């Protein structure tokens, strides 16, 4: 039975299909500069073929972990011993589980060693388990470099041999290599030469354009056409694609990556003096400790997960199921954020320092590919630190939503502090002390709490006044609220 998956469309709008059975026998090479759409192309190929063939993705940047939630792939953390990886790879082939081998967080030398051990485990399985499998290697030039790099010779040789086995001898063992690279000139020739199907994207260097044109059988004068390709556009050639070079625009994908295209964002609206205070003020805090990675699941746990892995079934979820999944995802995110707030060391670490740990927790808890970005995490963390979720209560939700809307006009890290003061104003409680404001902001310095009030007052969000006893009263003109007098240097009733 011939299975053709749709990659995209040609300039005339006609679908361009890839013969999956032919690909299993002939292998595929994808080339394109950073930002040309290679990862998008690989994701389209993986999504369209997920229900037809077993898959293993060598993922150096953690871009493909989103496939686990949608298509049932098992995510394997690469930070394991060589023997563990060999046993896991053998189980993968025996049980025909689709997996994402996540190398994120390892240095280049460790990535090469881990990838070599994993590929060798897939390759050295008994003949009875030579089931068809797509083995997709993103950024293949990292694992099969054309020349020596700043890595140990032992790691380079092990990785290069494993990649050569995949592309040269893997077909008889059911392994179909799909490799993607930014530059053909950086990829070992004996690895690239084994591919019979090609998808060539945008590139600018003469040497890469010449090699791409040569692989596609194009004349040298046509090589410069690769400079004019748009993001997501490729030239296809090969027995599984087309007998003649064929332009193709890759179609849409269902899952997303954590590392999207960079977008411009406005700079902070802050006066020069305030900015200098943030930069030069010495609040006595020690340098933040490096973010620690949580302990990875044991090999036995991963093997057990593979034991019970089932083949993915691509089905459209109904509206109720989608709503339930979204509610569960939101609950998991809130739970993870509150874990950071409960950690004794976390309150005085910046959101940017905590964010890498947060993303790891999200992947371990299977939050999915749509994780909050740094700005959203900063906002959630600030509100959780201030302890103001659901502060409106029954009958006051409309009033509280007005406060939340006003807080949205402040930087994410200040929104929780504003809502903390607003809650005190809404309930007529004493205004929080400087120390409490600083703690909600993630600082130990009371002067930071005073600066926060000054910043909000200068922008019209609130008004600070002192009574005759020196106690502070904070008014919210837009909301009609006012706090009771509170000692700026003392304990606050809202603590």
UniProtKB/TrEMBL annotation:
GO terms for molecular function: ATP binding. InterPro entries: ATPase_Atu1862_pred, HerA-like, HerA_central, P-loop_NTPase. It comes from the Bacteria. This is ATP-binding protein. Keywords: ATP-binding, Nucleotide-binding. The keyword Nucleotide-binding applies. Residues 12-68 form the Helicase HerA central domain.
């Amino acid at each position: 039975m011939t299975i053709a998956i749709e990659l995209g469309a040609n300039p005339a709008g006609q679908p361009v299909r890839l013969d999956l059975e032919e690909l299993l026998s002939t292998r595929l090479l994808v080339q394109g500069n950073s930002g040309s759409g290679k990862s998008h192309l690989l994701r389209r190929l993986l999504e369209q073929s997920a229900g037809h063939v077993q898959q293993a993705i060598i993922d150096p940047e953690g871009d493909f972990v989103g496939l686990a939630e949608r298509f049932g792939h098992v995510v394997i953390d690469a930070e394991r011993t060589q023997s563990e990886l060999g046993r896991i790879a053998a189980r993968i082939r025996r049980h025909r589980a689709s997996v994402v081998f996540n190398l994120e967080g390892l240095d280049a030398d460790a990535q090469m060693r881990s990838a070599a051990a994993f590929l060798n485990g897939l390759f050295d399985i008994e003949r009875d388990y030579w089931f068809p499998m797509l083995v997709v290697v993103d950024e293949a030039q990292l694992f099969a470099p054309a020349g020596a790099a700043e890595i140990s010779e032992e790691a380079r040789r092990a990785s290069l041999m494993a990649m050569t086995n995949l592309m040269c001898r893997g077909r008889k063992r059911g392994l179909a290599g799909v490799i993607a690279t930014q530059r053909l000139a950086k990829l070992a020739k004996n690895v690239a030469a084994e591919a019979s199907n090609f998808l060539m994207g945008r590139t600018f260097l003469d040497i890469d354009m010449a090699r791409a044109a040569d692989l596609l059988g194009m004349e040298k004068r046509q090589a410069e056409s690769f400079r004019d390709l748009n993001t997501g556009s490729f030239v296809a050639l090969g027995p599984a694609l087309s007998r003649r070079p064929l332009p193709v625009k890759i179609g849409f994908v269902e899952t997303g990556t954590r590392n999207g295209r960079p977008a411009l964002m406005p700079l902070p609206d802050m006066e020069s003096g305030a900015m200098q205070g943030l930069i030069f003020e010495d609040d006595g805090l020690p340098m933040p400790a490096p973010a620690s990675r949580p302990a990875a699941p044991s090999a036995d746990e991963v093997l057990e997960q593979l034991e019970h892995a089932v083949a993915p079934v691509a089905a459209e979820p109904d509206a109720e199921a989608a709503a339930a999944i979204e509610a569960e995802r939101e609950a998991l995110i809130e739970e993870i954020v509150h874990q950071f707030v409960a950690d004794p060391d976390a309150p005085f670490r910046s959101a940017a320092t905590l964010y890498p740990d947060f993303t790891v927790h999200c992947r371990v808890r299977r939050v999915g590919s749509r994780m909050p970005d740094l700005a959203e995490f900063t906002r959630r963390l600030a509100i959780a630190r201030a302890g103001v979720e659901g502060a409106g209560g029954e009958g006051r939700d409309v009033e509280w939503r007005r406060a939340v809307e006003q807080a949205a006009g402040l930087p994410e890290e200040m929104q929780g502090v504003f809502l903390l003061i607003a809650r005190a104003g809404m309930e007529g409680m004493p205004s929080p002390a400087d120390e409490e404001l600083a703690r909600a902001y993630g600082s130990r310095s009371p002067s930071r709490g005073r600066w926060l009030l000054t910043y909000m007052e200068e922008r019209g969000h609130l008004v600070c006044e002192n009574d005759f006893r020196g106690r502070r009263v904070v008014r919210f003109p837009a909301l009609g609220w006012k706090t009771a007098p509170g000692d700026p240097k003392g304990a606050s009733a809202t603590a």
